[in-house]
Amino acid sequence: MTDPSAPLIEIDNLEVDFEVGGRLFARAGQTKLRAVDGVSLELRRGETLGLVGESGCGKSTLGRTVLHLIKPTGGQVRFDGRALDDLDEIELRQLRRRMQIVFQDPFSSLNPRMSVGEAVAEPMLIHGLAGKDDWRPKVAELFDIVGLGPAMIDRYPHEFSGGQRQRVGIARALAAQPDFIVCDEAVSALDVSIQAQIINLLEELRTRLNLTYLFIAHDLAVVRHISDRVAVMYLGRIVEIAAKSDLFENPLHPYTEALLSAVPIPDRNAEINRQRILLPGEVPSPLSPPSGCALHPRCPKAMAVCRDLKPALRPHGEGHHVACHLYSEDNPGSF
Amino acid sequence: MTGPENIRLSGGFMVLLRALGHAIRHHRLSTIGFFIILFLVATAAFAPLLAPYEPYEQDLYNVLSGPSAAHWLGTDNVGRDLLSRFLYGGRVSLLLGLVSTLLAAAIGVSLGLLAGFKGGLIDAAIMRVVDAILCFPFLVFLLAMAAALGGGLINLGVALVLFGWVFFARIVRGQVLLVRELPYVEAARAAGASSARLMWRHILPNTLAPVIVAITLGIGNAILAESAISFLGLGVQPPTASWGKELKSGFDNLELAPLYSIVPGILITLSVLACNFLGDGLRDALDPRLRGEERR
Asked: Closest residue of B to A160, CA-based?
C-alpha cells in the first residue's frame, strides 16, 4: 500500500479540448472548445470535494476526465500515485474497479434491457468479484445497503422511481468496492425530499466504506451539506478552492461571492436583507473565451490587469486558494 | 418468477426466443402472423407427404384444367398438378426468403455495429461500400448479378444477401450512434467493461428493435424479389417450382386457369403480411417497457 497520507487523486494541469465542427466542412483552422483549462487539484483519502459552477463550466467534463472516460488533451491524473496516462487499456480497465461514477440522470444511466440486479452485478462479474452463479447474495447485500429490497433484483429499470433508480446507480458504483466515486450531479434530478435521503445515504456510505468523493453539483446547499472542501469552477478553470466553512463564510473570488449571494436563505428576515450580486451578461462561450481573466467582462471589481493577464490559482490563507488579481501580491491596487 | 437461469439467457438469441414467445402470447396480430407462417412452413416442409402428385409429373392430355376432384386447383400448361407445385414452390420461396434475409441481417448487423462503435476509418470504409451498393436500383442489381453469376436459386440467394445486408448495416449503425452516447454505456465503460462486452451486452440489445422489424420486412421483400426475378425468367430454373415462377407461368394463362397465378399471389401476400404482423409484435415484446403486463 502507498502512504495513507498521500492524496488519492492528483490532478495536474489538466486540459480537455473538444473539436467542434465536422471534418468535411471544416474551415481552415479547426475550432477547439476548451472545456477544462489547466485544472490542478488534489483529493485526499476519505474527503469529499464539492465542485460547483454553472452549467457548461466544465465540471462534468472534469469529473469524467478524472476517470479517463474522456482522455485529457493535456496534463495528467494520478490515482494512488499511478498516472492514468501510462496505463494500457487492460490496466486501466482493472483500475476502474477502484474508481466509479454515479450519474445525474437515473433514467438513462441504466440499461433498459438489463434487470437492475444484472446492472449491479456487472462490475462484480467484470472484475471477478463474483461469478455467474453466485452474484445474487452479493447484489442483495448491496441492495440492502442502499435501501432497496432484495425482491427488486429481477425488476427492470422502468419499474422504478427516480430515487430508487439512483439507489440502484449507487449500488452499481459500490459493487466493485471502489475507493473513489465521482458523483456527477447525483441528486440534482431528484425531488428535494429524495435528495436528502440520497445525500444522507452517500454520507453514511463514505464513513462506512471509507470512500473519497468528487461531488459535482450546481446546488450550493447540497454541496455545503456534504463537502469537506469546495472548488468553484468558471469556464473551465478553478477560480477558488477552500475548506467548506472558509469558502461559504469568507468567499474571496467575485464569482464565488456572486454565486453564494444567489442562494436563498431559509429565514424571512435574513432573506429580505439578502444582497444579491448580479453579474451582468451571460457566461461567455468557451469557443471564444475572454482574454485575461475569463470573468472580467462581467466582474464588478474588474481592473485593467484582468483584461490581459490570466490570474493563477494562488494560496491566500490556510488551505484557501483563489485565482483573482485582487489578491495577488504584485497588484498595487489590492487591499 | 424469473429464475437465475432466465437471467443468464439475456444476451443474444435467447432474448429473441423469449420475445417471440411473448409476442405470440400477448400480441393478437403477431399470433395470427405466427400461425400463418407456421402453417406455410409446415406445408412446405411436409410437401412430399401432403402433395397428391409428383410436382414434375406431366399429363399432357390434361393441361390447364380447372379445379376438379382429382386436381383441386387444376393443372398447369404441361398438366402438372398445381396444388403439388405450390406446396413444393413454398419450400423454395420460404427457404430463400428466410435464409437470405437472416444471412443478410447477420452480416449487416455485425458490420453496422462495428462501424457505429469503432467510428473513424472503419466506419467510413464500411459505409462507403454500403452507399455504393445502395446506388444500384434493387432490380437492376439483381439482374446484373443474375447476368454475372447466371440464374438459379443459389445465385439469387447470394445476390439477395449481397444487396440486403446494407439495409441492416445502415439501420444498426444509426442506432449504435444513438445508443453508444447514452449514460448507461458510459456507466458500463466506467465499470471496466471491455469493448466486446459494451457492444454485445449494452449496445446490441438496444439496437435490435428496428432490426427485428427490418428482418420481417426483409423476408417479405426477398420472397417478392424471388417472384420478380423468377417472373423475369432469371431466378429459379424449370422444372423447379417456386411461387414467383408459378405466378409468372400462370400469368400467361390467366384466362384459361386463373387459379394458376392467383393462388401463388395470395400465398406470397399472405407470407409477407404474416411476417410483418409477427415483426410488429416482436418489436413490442423486445422492449421491457412495453411488456409490463407479463411481469409481476
From this structure: B289
Q: What is the mean pLDDT of chain A?
A: 85
Kindly determine whether residue A109 and residue B184, on different chains, have CB atoms separated by under 8 Å: yes
Q: Is the pTM of this model over 0.80?
A: no
A88 touches chain B (CB under 8 A): no
Q: Could you say which residues from 256 to 295 on chain B have a Cβ atom under 8 Å away from some Cβ of chain A?
A: 287-289, 292, 295
Of residues A113, A133, A176, nearest to B288 (C-beta): A113
Distance CA B31, CA B24 (A): 5
A109-113, A201-205, B6-10, B283-287 — which is least confidently predicted? B6-10
A127 Cβ under 8 Å from any chain B Cβ: yes
Q: How far is B8 from chain A (nearest CA, A)?
A: 8
Handedness of CA A60, A65, A69, A74 (dihedral sign): positive
Kindly report the number of other CB atoms within 10 A of residue A191's CB atom: 12
Contact A157, A110 (CB under 8 A): yes
Q: Give backbone dihedrals phi and psi of B261, rounded to 5 degrees, phi first.
A: -105, -25
Contact assessment for residue B113 and residue B207, using Cβ atoms and an 8 Å cutoff: yes
Chain A: give the shortest CA distance to residue B289, in Å: 6
d(CA B86, CA B72): 12
Contact yes or no for B201 and A114 at CB 8 A: yes
Q: Please write the tens of the pLDDT for every residue from A158-196.
A: 888 888 888 899 899 988 889 999 998 888 878 888 888
Per-residue pLDDT of B231-290, as tens digits, reads: 777 777 777 778 877 777 777 877 777 787 888 888 888 888 888 888 888 877 777 666
Cβ–Cβ contact A114 with B under 8 A: yes
A96 vs B190: CB contact, 8 Å cut-off? yes
Helix residue ranges, H only, chain B: 4-8, 13-26, 28-45, 47-50, 82-118, 120-135, 138-149, 153-179, 183-190, 195-197, 208-231, 243-252, 259-285
Domains for chain B: give ranges and CATH numbers. Answer: 9-295 (1.10.3720.10)
**Out of B15, B184, B197, whose CB is closest to A110?**
B184
**Has residue B224 got a pLDDT over 70?**
yes
Would you say A52 and A59 are in contact if contact means Cβ atoms under 8 Å apart?
yes
Residue B51 touches partner A, C-beta closer than 8 Å? no
Please state the ipTM of this predicted complex. 0.81
Q: Give the residue among A110, A118, A9 at the shortest CA–CA distance from A68.
A: A9
